[in-house]
Amino acid sequence: MTRTVVFTATAILIGQSLSSCAAFSPAASTSSFSFALNDAVNTPVEPPLNPLLSQIKPSKTVEVFSLVKQMEAEGETVTSLCVGEPDFAPPQCVLDAATAAMNGGQTRYTAVTGTADLRKAIAEDLKSRKGVEYNPVTEIVVGNGAKQCVYQGLLAACGAGDEVVVPAPYWPSYPEMALLVGASPVILETSVDDGYLINPDALDKCLEEHPKAKVLMLCNPSNPTGGVHSTELLTQIAKVLEKYPNVVILADEIYERLVYTDDGQCTSFASLPGMFSRTITINGFSKSHAMTGFRLGYLAAPERFAKATSVLQGQITSCASSVSQAAGVSALNDVDDSWLENNVVIMKEKRDYVLQELAKMDGVSVSVPPNGAFYVLPDVSKYYNGDDTQLCLDLLKEKKLALVPGESFGAPGTVRISYATSMEELETAMTKLREFLESL
Ligand code: PMP
Q: Facing residues of 299 across strands?
């Protein structure tokens, strides 16, 4: 009864405060009131959710990770190779910059597109390392992680009735984000023979068959395959795209600092002739500087895209954290290249170890050794009749080893291993996986 009184009072207050507003509808206060009455007799009204949600799958990585956290909370020790985040700490200067920002009063909203200092540092970094020139004032939008930037980029480039070409295996958020913006994902299969990279002829055919395609998702280096498209291949892809001028390329280059080829290079798609005006580049600090929890990423694009995404961001989150942005400035201005290069060396050692151990396992194959990011996607389809989800569930239950089923990346019959963890953890993981598979 007390609750009903509280709700009634709230309804009256809402009614009073809103009644001066032109858009006020009496129905609003009535529905608050009827909710209170219904609640009081224990038959709560359940207004429907957005129908769009019935199409959106939750992230499998997040699901597995939540399961791991739950098991750990129950006292179990789990070996987790499911999440894509480096196991090392950000550089000390980055942490110091964050502390100094907090203590120095940088605790307020910043400009929607980010602080001038950070945008300047990003523009300089892209120019010096990637050979692409962006105006820091009008062509860079800092957001709360690259994930948000991908979403806003998609939202700016396409909408209802459009199609988004997503090469598979893919980062699971791409098709779901395409659906969220009202577009339809079109999956472009890649083959093991092509190293899971985009085949220009297959892309041509796909775009010809899908005139509604407005965006091509280009994840380079790739999560989950670790594949790196060479400059030559990117140039061939660009050549195909010349035939389809309406297609925007959303180049997600968040792993571009983690490349294990001899030259260590990852060409920015926007730097290719003719591609700047139609490319939205995504990058951030999560993978390169181990700053996942800072939630800091950015989008770099010609002004009309950047402006559109800043309008969206202004309505969605206003701006990225001021403290994280100060840390981001330090990441770009103060961190020595040797810190990043050293991480590449360490990560390459881990990759090599995992590949070497997987090669010893019966029925497991890695036809495409990953050249970037920190993932391996071995084929385990000989087990469980290719049911990778069940394999991962049993592996977690029986061996307390968490991997992500390949099915969620559009790669059934595989599992994704993130090797961005300690060598000790990797050794335990490889032993567990070998023992598990041998027991089948
Ligand atoms: N793109 C890809 C391909 C990723 O793998 C991730 C993180 N898993 C992101 C974007 C998002 O990164 P951030 O932490 O900056 O949001």
A: 141, 282
Distance, CA of 230 to CA of 211 (rounded, Å): 27
Out of 3.40.630.30, 1.10.1040.10, 3.30.420.270, 3.90.1150.10, the CATH code matching 59-88+337-438 is 3.90.1150.10
Domain parsing of the chain, residue ranges: 2-42, 59-88+337-438, 92-333
Closest CA to ligand 1's atom 7 = 84
Measured in whole angstroms, the distance separating CA 249 from the mean position of its chain's CA atoms is 16
| Dist CA 398 CA 64 (whole Å) | 15
Q: Answer yes or no: CATH 3.40.50.2000 is held by domain 92-333.
A: no
User: Measured in angstroms, how far is the CA atom of residue 147 from the centroid of ligand 1?
Assistant: 5
Quick check: 172 and 407 in contact, CB under 8 A? no
Phi, psi of 358 (to 5 degrees): -65, -35
Are 376 and 352 in contact by the 8 Å Cβ rule? The answer is no
Confirm if 221 and 256 have CB atoms less than 8 A apart.
Answer: yes
Tell me how far CA of residue 336 lies from CA of 56, 110, 146, in angstroms.
Answer: 41, 27, 23
One pLDDT digit (tens) per residue for the chain, 440 residues: 333 333 333 332 333 333 333 333 333 333 333 444 455 567 889 999 999 888 898 877 777 888 888 999 999 999 999 988 999 999 999 999 999 999 999 999 999 999 999 999 999 999 999 999 999 999 999 999 999 999 999 999 999 999 999 999 999 999 999 999 999 999 999 999 999 999 999 999 999 999 999 999 999 999 999 999 999 999 999 999 999 999 999 999 999 999 999 999 999 999 999 999 999 999 999 999 999 999 999 999 999 999 999 999 999 999 999 999 999 999 999 999 999 999 999 999 999 999 999 999 999 999 888 999 999 999 999 999 999 999 999 999 999 999 999 999 999 999 999 999 999 999 999 999 999 999 99
Q: Looking at ligand 1, which atom is closest to the CA of residue 61?
A: 8
What does the buried/exposed string (b/e) look like for 192-213 if buried means 16 or more CB atoms within 10 Å of the residue's CB?
eeebbbbbbebbbebbeebeeb
Q: What is the ipTM of this complex?
A: 0.99
Task: State the CB neighbour count (10 A cutoff) for residue 87.
Answer: 17
The answer to whether the CB of 388 is under 6 A from ligand 1 is no
Pocket test for ligand 1, best of 171, 294, 418 (most atoms within 8 A of CB): 171
